[in-house]
Structures are given as C-alpha cells and as structure tokens.
Amino acid sequence: MTSSKEFKWFGSPDHYVQGKNILLNSADILKPYGSKFLLLADKDVYKAAGKKFQDYLTENGFTVAYTEFNGESSLEEIDRVTKIAKDKSSDVIIGLGGGKTLDTSKGVANALDISNIICPSAASCDASCIKLSIIYTEDHEFVKYLFYAHHPILIMADTQVIAQAPTRTLLAGIGDAFSTYYEGLEVAKSHGHTLAGGHPTDAGLAVARQCADTLWKYSYQALEASENNTVTTALEKVVEANILLSGLGAEGAGLAAAHSIYDGFSVLKGDPDKFRHGEEVALGVMIQLVLIGTPQKELDKFIEFLLTCGFPLTKKEFHLDKVSQSDLEAFAKKSTDKGETIENMSFKVSPEMILEALDGVDAAVTRYRETHSIHPVFVDKVFG
Ligand SMILES: [Zn+2]
To answer: Where is NAD(+) annotated to bind (predicted)?
Structure first.
C-alpha cells in the first residue's frame, strides 16, 4: 500500500477576505456561518478593536458572547473556552488577536466541531491559515503541535486594525513569510514533505514564490506605513504575503532548515527568549543560505534586504554572544533533531554545520555592515 505521505498535497482555508475596516462591514460575510458567536480576544485587543466589533455584530442581529483570552495557548485554556462555547451553544468561535489567541480558537473549534473564524490583529506570522496550533504550558513552555483535520473556515484580515499594531509585529511577519520560498525550494530539491501532508505541489511553490516576490518589492514601504499607522497599497500587499501567501506556501511547499533554527532557539532561556518567531526564522534563512553555499554576491542581497528592514542578524544582535558554548551546542542539536523540518534539506545537516554556518552568517553580516551604510526602516532597542 502507498502511504498517503507519498502523494502531493495542497490545503487551504475555505475563504480569505482582506481589507480596511472589514470587521465593521462583515455582517454579510458572516451570515452563512451561524448566528451565535463566541469572541475570544485578549484585554488589549478587545479594547482596541473587539468591543466595537462585538457591538457592530450585535446591532446586526448576531448573538455575541465575549471571553477574555488568558494569554497562553495551552490545553487548559482550550478546555476553559470550549466549556464556555458549549454553555452558550455557540455555533462559531471567532479568534481575534495574535497567534496564541488564534491557535486557542482553532483548538476550541476542533473540540466542538464548530466553525472557526480567524481575525488576526497583527500580520506577525502565518498561523491564521495553517491547520495546527502550537501548544504551551501555562508557564510558557513549548509542549507540542496539535494538527487538525480542518483549516479555519474563514480568515478576515482587517488592515485598519493591523496598521495600528506595533511595527515589530509586521517585521516578524515579514521574517516568517520571507523564509517560505527559500525553504520550499529545498523541499522541492529533496522531494521532501510539507505541512499539508505529502510532497509539495507546483501550486504551493508558486504561492511561495509570489510571497518572496511581494516582500522583496514592498517590505520597506509596508514597514513605513506601519510606523505611520496607515493603510497603503504596499501594506495591503505585505499583509497578504505574511498571512495568506506564507501560510499556503508553508503548508503547500514545506519547511526546511530556517524553521528548525527557530525550534533550536526554544532551548535557550532568558535573553534570547525576547525574540519573535519571524526574527529567528529570518536568521534561520541566512543560516540555510550559508549551508547550501550561496555565492557571496547573492548572499549580500539578502543581507542588504534584511538589515534594511531592521532584522537582527549577528550573534551579538541576538544576544548569542552571551550564551555558553554548551547552550549553543544544545541549540544546534535541537535544530537538527529527528523529526525537525531540517530533514527536508537536500543533504544531511549536523549540529556542527549549524554552528559553522552561524559563524559564517555572523562574519558576512559584520563585513557587510563595515563596508556599507545601512539605514534600517525599523529600529528596536532590544536588538544587540
Ligand atoms: Zn513560521
């Protein structure tokens, strides 16, 4: 019998709708999905956008209960919100917020087999479109990935809401999305496996290529728009890349070394903890490029792009200069563990190769900084 993993797979949510002020114009969009909604959002997001959204829906004839997200995407939180949804006989769970809120709403929808509508309040990662939740303990320790049979049924990305989020969230989303095509290329080369289930489709890789193309062209302008809290065409394009193209691309084209580097960071406690998923993934892209032997001229283009966006890329900027050698070795070991997506690389990667490539990135970026004047669009004091 042929394993289902040996077929090509492509998956996606039913619908993705994006635009300025979509939440306050969504009654017609939402009608087909139900009438009794449970809205999950944290206190700040509820204050900034959730309360108005709830009032709007109520005025338009929907029954909308609200529960405050406790801050962690944990099994306990999924259970708590599931009980509320059951008590209220909700037919739809709406997650409004960042990745953890959205992941919790996916867990609730899966437990009760009800519709899940996802409203990202920032374009900080591609969690919206992916049919899995990352589960943590109540103390923020990573536990596992929960994979579901179904995607969220509808994503509504309100660019007016997203433009008000801190610019660092958009930067992180760019890092997460930027990796998609370069990881997909490695998966295609190795005939590896994707998050969707089996081997990559041409559709998955085409979406991933468009994602990279958009980011090369529009990231600086989008970051500037975010700094000004305004919705421009460039911001619209980058939001679509970060949420939709990156999500479909990651599932349909697959992940390789860059995301394993992110997993490697999870063993480092304390200071390096301060960095976001997409920031670590951006460093992961650089490590992957050095691993595959990217020629210097091409590598410089990536360095110029990522530094101008505002990404940290050196060991110092990631505070890795303060990490002990044994912790660095644990980081490299975790990045290459069995089951990590680094197995999708077209050659076997050892922990030593990770540390050597990290040094290679550090040297190339340091040289580039010394020989070019960089004007980052976004600057954050947490970096280096
Ligand atoms: Zn990611």
So the answer is: 42, 99-103, 132, 136
User: How would you label 25-39 residue by residue, b for 16+ Cβ within 10 Å and e otherwise?
Assistant: ebeeebeebbeebbb
**The amino acid at 178:** F
Contacts of 379 (CB under 8 A, 6+ apart): 310
- How would DSSP label each residue in 247-264? HHHHHHH---HHHHHHHH
Q: Side chain identity at 226, as an amino acid letter?
A: S
- Domain boundaries defined on the chain: 9-163, 167-371
CATH number for the region 167-371 comes to 1.20.1090.10
Each residue of 331-360: pLDDT tens digit? 999 999 999 999 999 999 999 999 999 999
Task: Output the CA 140–ligand 1 centroid distance in Å.
Answer: 18
CATH of domain 9-163: 3.40.50.1970
**Stretch (H or E) spanning 122:** none
- Distance between Cα 360 and ligand 1 center (Å): 23
Residue ranges for the known binding site for glycerol are 126, 176, 259, 277
List the binding residues for NAD(+): 42, 99-103, 132, 136
The span from the first CA to the last CA of the chain, in angstroms, equals 53
Q: Taking a C-beta distance cutoff of 8 angstroms, is the pair 45, 97 a contact? A: yes
